[in-house]
Design brief:
The complex is a heterodimer. Among the domains of chain A are: about 130 residues; about 170 residues, Four Helix Bundle (Hemerythrin (Met), subunit A) (Up-down Bundle). Chain A starts with a helix and ends with a helix. Chain A is built from 19 helices and two strands. Chain A is globular, with a radius of gyration of 23 Å. Chain B is α+β, with helices and mostly antiparallel strands. Chain B has one domain: paralog of FGE (formylglycine-generating enzyme) (Alpha-Beta Complex), CATH 3.90.1580. In chain B, the strands form six sheets. Chain B has a four-stranded mixed β-sheet, with helices on one face. In chain B, strands 1-4-16 form a three-stranded antiparallel β-sheet, covered by helices on one side. The longest helix of chain B is centred in the first third of the chain and has 17 residues. Chain B is globular, with a radius of gyration of 20 Å. Chain B starts with a helix and ends in a 16-residue tail after the last strand. Classes of the chains: A mainly alpha, B alpha+beta. At the A-B interface, loops of A face strand 14 of B.
């Protein structure tokens, strides 16, 4: 009984356990739902899974099902980021507990009943509880925003290497706060439209409307919503891994205001899409600032990796080659920032190229080709975020030695092969005619399946390891229970004003 | 010995991939592409969300897509009559232009000559020599592809037909019910030509040949390959899969022309009766064809037959 209680504590009360539970849920969903499309259909795997699980897949409801599925996955990703944020940004313990508990109940409810509604039959009970789950996640967001409120003297920057105001307010905390507020407002754009469902608004996939000259306000709101939510998830993971790498110094002081400004401008631009035709201009400007902040983080992180490794080796005057070897020494720490660079080729670069050449190239293609490019590039962005979370988790887990290297390089190479192949596939019409495309289509599809497949197998192996570990009384889970929070340098520290406030609360 | 084996395997691979298509075998389906079907006036369910729409007139629509034989016959007639001409390895013809709305990003399509069929595209299943168009051997009853919207409309205009509007196309595909596919709510791999179809052609010919003869999925068996009947409530073939089909509407503000039905490259969700694909009217592809509609000329209630296009 005590073991069960301890396990329950680990999974529901520790940051590391909560993150593991979230990653497990996404992996299981990806493994099962990944069998419903692509080559799995031709191989008969989909029909087997559908019959085995008793799924109810009406063709006409496909759009709705997809919407439910990616809301479920996105909610778990948001929850994982929230667990990380509540651990790395200083806040009161009860705040952390309230936020984490609320969002945990929220994503579990959303997941169970969202998937039930989408794939196992419609009823008001499932859909109602799906909405309850999402409401809880939104409420957790409100609590998080309150906890992150940066203009309070309870947590101030003491180490002047971290970006701060003259009064000592923490600019990184401010960046997290702005991201959280933006995400709440952006969630509202989806929620408001959802409330009009079947009452002026009909289910649609954004990629199916790309060539409609006249979109309704509700359609624009949904299109804006899905774009900004993914962008803000990317902003959040950038800030999180920045703390992991102890982002500080001059670059941090430039990056944090830049990130804040970029986040505000992008969000404002996306929200304005409902009312103005200038939205893309704002979005481009905001993107430049956010991407510049991310670039500064990459520069800092790679510099730090090189410096730390060189110092560890005791080399006094390292050459270029030695620095390069030092950079690649730990793929788990090199990887997330490489993925940010790689993203420029497979996501941002593609997006900018499309915008510049829209009428000259992409609008000449049939809509289905343009659609593949569009859906391809944001699927890749989502998957890149997933690999970054995965690599950070492997570091949190504390895997070391050769296994760490194997895992790191497998994730980097596997995912980049898949994303590179997906980009080539989506842009194939630039360099191959329809008549000659068979070979490039076959090869890119094969590489995509191989790259993603190898990562799924790897994640599956890791999770089986963790499952086995739960049966050990002194396993990883026990160590993580004893040291539940993320081990890193925090920007803010509790001030005397903070202590006084806590004491005042206790007096009551 | 090992080196020899490697060379042999690589040579075989290159031979299969580089030497091009095998000779095409003509496959008779028993479906006459000169047949039309009557679609009576009345209400029907339109689009994914099944809005009730009304078409208040009867119309006829071709039971199959226009075939390579039909289109090559037309090209020969039209060339003789001077309604089209060949220049820069392309068939050209006149289009009176689309109304221009001055909308953001709108393409202007003024009156002028536009491409109908790019003769140099390898996906085209016609040959042209000594002033005569002919279908490539074996492809006579495959759908005409590599034809632009201008080329499809010119064919229809030539015989006094028209391209079906999107509404006409969807009603002809779906009937008055709420089915997702022309015949029901699911699709089997031997019922239509789409990406998951392991049809006879992929086994018999090279991978480049992807279209099936019009009316192929009619419940017949071809050398042991048993097809399921894939017809719409009005008896139309290939309204899901094989090749996309141009529809006739000019959509204001954009001037894209919409294509329906999905193709051999499509996943099954694109074969449903409502998804749209679109492109500019000069676009052509080896997975894109068309069929025609017309005001009924036969006795109401019975399909009219014509040989004018043959």
């Amino acid at each position: 009984m005590k073991k069960i209680k301890d396990l329950f504590h680990f999974f529901f009360q520790t940051t590391k356990g909560l993150i593991l539970m979230g990653i497990t849920a996404i992996s299981v969903i990806t493994a099962i739902w990944g069998m419903l499309s692509g080559p799995m259909v031709e191989w008969g795997v989909r029909d087997f899974v559908v019959n085995l699980l008793g799924m109810d897949l009406q063709s006409v409801e496909r759009s709705g099902r997809i919407i439910m599925l990616y809301h479920v996955i996105a909610m778990i990703v948001v929850a994982i980021e929230v667990y990380m944020i509540t651990s790395i940004v200083p806040m009161r313990r009860h705040q952390r507990a309230n936020i984490n508990n609320t969002i945990t109940v929220g994503w579990i409810t959303t997941t169970i009943f969202g998937l039930a509604f989408g794939y196992f039959g419609h009823n008001y009970f499932y859909h109602g509880l799906f909405l309850v789950g999402q409401s809880l996640i939104f409420f957790a967001g409100l609590l998080l925003t309150a906890a992150l409120y940066p203009w309070r003297k309870h947590f101030l920057v003491e180490n002047k290497d971290y970006a701060h105001t003259k009064a000592g307010y923490d600019l990184e905390r401010m960046a997290f706060f702005i991201m959280a507020v933006s995400m709440l407002i952006s969630a509202g754009f989806g929620a408001v439209t959802g409330s009009f469902w079947s009452n002026g608004h009909e289910t649609f996939l954004a990629e199916d409307l790309i060539r409609n000259p006249d979109k309704t306000a509700l359609q624009k709101a949904v299109i804006g919503h899905l774009h900004i939510m993914l962008t803000l998830i990317a902003v959040a993971i950038t800030l999180i891994v920045g703390r992991w790498m102890d982002f500080k110094g001059k670059l941090h002081k430039i990056a944090m205001p830049t990130m804040m400004f970029g986040t505000i401008v992008i969000s404002g631009g996306v929200w304005s899409v409902v009312w103005t035709k200038m939205a893309h201009t704002f979005i481009y400007v905001g993107s430049v600032f956010v991407m510049f902040a991310a670039l500064l983080l990459v520069i800092h992180s790679w510099g730090k990796l090189i410096r730390d490794r060189i110092a560890e080796q005791g080399i006094e005057n390292p050459g270029f080659g030695q620095k390069l070897v030092a950079l690649f020494h730990d793929p788990i720490k090199f990887g997330p920032f490489w993925q940010m660079v790689f993203m420029n080729f497979t996501v941002s670069g593609v997006g900018i190229f499309m915008a510049v050449k829209l009428e000259e190239i992409f609008r000449v293609w049939p809509a289905r080709e343009e659609r593949i490019t569009l859906t391809g590039h944001w699927h890749i962005l989502s998957a890149i975020i997933a690999t970054i979370i995965l690599m950070y988790y492997i570091d949190i887990w504390g895997i070391k030695g050769k296994l760490r290297k194997w895992l790191g390089w497998t994730i980097i190479i596997g995912s980049d092969i898949a994303f590179g192949a997906a980009t080539i596939f989506s842009m194939k019409r630039l360099f191959v005619s329809e008549y000659d495309q068979a070979s490039i289509v076959n090869w890119t599809m094969l590489l995509m399946d191989f790259g993603l497949g190898i990562i799924l197998v790897l994640v599956g192996g890791l999770l089986i390891w963790r499952l086995k570990d739960l049966f050990s009384s002194e396993g990883f889970w026990k160590k993580e229970s004893d040291s539940p929070e993320l081990d890193l340098e925090r920007t803010g520290v509790l001030t005397q004003a903070g202590r006084d406030a806590i004491e005042k609360e206790m007096e009551i | 010995m090992k080196t020899f084996k490697i060379i042999l395997v690589v040579s075989l691979f290159l031979a299969v991939n580089l030497l091009g298509e095998k000779p095409m075998e003509y496959v008779e389906t028993g479906v006459n592409p000169n047949t039309w079907s009557l679609v009576p006036a009345g209400e029907f369910y339109f689009g994914q969300h099944q809005h009730v729409k009304n078409i208040d007139y009867d119309y006829e629509i071709m039971v199959t897509n226009v075939t390579n034989r039909q289109y090559s016959n037309y090209l020969n007639d039209a060339l003789e009559k001077g309604s089209i001409y060949i220049e820069r390895d392309t068939v050209w013809g006149y289009h009176p232009g689309d109304p221009f709305d001055g909308y953001l990003h709108e393409w202007e399509i003024p009156a002028g000559d536009y491409p109908h069929v790019p003769l140099g595209n390898p996906g085209l299943r016609l040959t042209y020599g000594e002033g005569i168009f002919s279908p490539k051997s074996g492809y006579e009853n495959h759908p005409m592809v590599e034809v632009s919207w201008f080329g499809a409309k010119a064919y229809a205009d030539f015989f006094g037909y028209r391209l079906p509007t999107e509404m006409e196309w969807e009603k002809a595909a779906r009937g008055t019910g709420t089915n997702d596919y022309p015949w029901g709510n699911t699709v089997q791999r031997n019922q239509a030509n789409y990406v998951s179809s392991h049809n006879l052609f992929k086994k018999m010919f090279s991978d480049v040949v992807k279209t099936t003869p019009v009316g192929f999925y009619n419940g017949r068996s071809y050398d042991g390959y048993q097809t399921m009947e894939g017809i719409s409530p009005y008896g139309l073939y290939d309204m899901a899969g094989n090749v996309y089909q141009w529809t006739g509407d000019d959509h204001p503000k954009v001037h894209y022309r919409y294509m329906r039905g999905g193709s051999y490259q499509s996943y099954e969700y694109s074969l449903r009766v409502w998804p749209r694909n679109s492109a500019g009217p000069e676009y052509s592809s080896m997975s894109l064809g068309f069929r025609c509609a017309r005001t009924p000329i036969g006795e109401i209630g019975a399909p009219a037959d014509t040989t004018s296009a043959e």
